[in-house]
Amino acid sequence: MNLSVTTVGGPDLAPFIPELARLRTLVFRAYPYLYDGDPAYEERYLQTYLNAPDAIIVLARDGEAIVGASSALPLTQETDDIRAPLHAPEFDPADVLYLGESVLTAEYRGRGLGHAFFDHREAHAARLGLHTTAFCAVQRPEDHPARPTPYRTHHAFWAARGYTERPDLTTTLSWKDLGDHHETPKPMRYWIRKTQTGG
C-alpha cells in the first residue's frame, strides 16, 4: 500500500467529484446509513463543496486510487436543517466548522485514516479561526433488522477525539433506505468539540 492523505477545495476538487460520488454511493449502502443512492445525485450534492468558500474534502489515496474521503465546511454555508440546532446563545454559527460525512472502503479501515480525517479537518478549523467543530450521526434502533452482529459504534472513537454527544441537539434528514420505495426521515444526533479559546 502507498497511502497518502491530502486536502483539496475549490476548483481543485472538480476532477475528483465523479469518483467521490461513486465511493459515497458504495460505502453508504452499509449499516447504519443503508443509503440507496445514485452517483448522479451524489455528483450534484458534491457541487456544494466545489462552490462553497472555505469548504474542503480530505482525500485518502492508495497510490492514485481514492479509497476514502471526509468533508467539512463552515456551518454558515450548510443547509437550514444542519444549521438550525446550533444557534445562539450557546453557539455562534460563524464560529463553527461543520464536519460532513466520512467514507472509507472496508479494507482500509483500522490504518489510522479516521484519525487523519479528523486531524486535517480540525486543522482547517484552526486555520479559519473557528473554535467549534460539530457533526451529526444517524440514530438507528438497537433492534434494527439490518444491524450487523457484532456491531461496534464509533462513539468511543469520537469521544476520544474530544467530541461530546449531545442528545439535546438533533435534526432530521431524509433519504431512501435500501429496499424502500421512497425517502423516510432519519433522526440525527450532534457531537460537539470546542477548543479552549472558544469556550
Automatic annotation (TrEMBL):
Organism name: Deinococcus knuensis
Domain N-acetyltransferase span(s) in chain numbering: 11-193
InterPro entries, alphabetized: Acyl_CoA_acyltransferase, GNAT_dom
Domain of life: Bacteria
CDD domains for the chain: NAT_SF
Gene3D superfamilies on file: 3.40.630.30
One Pfam family named in its UniProt record: Acetyltransf_1
Record's protein name: N-acetyltransferase
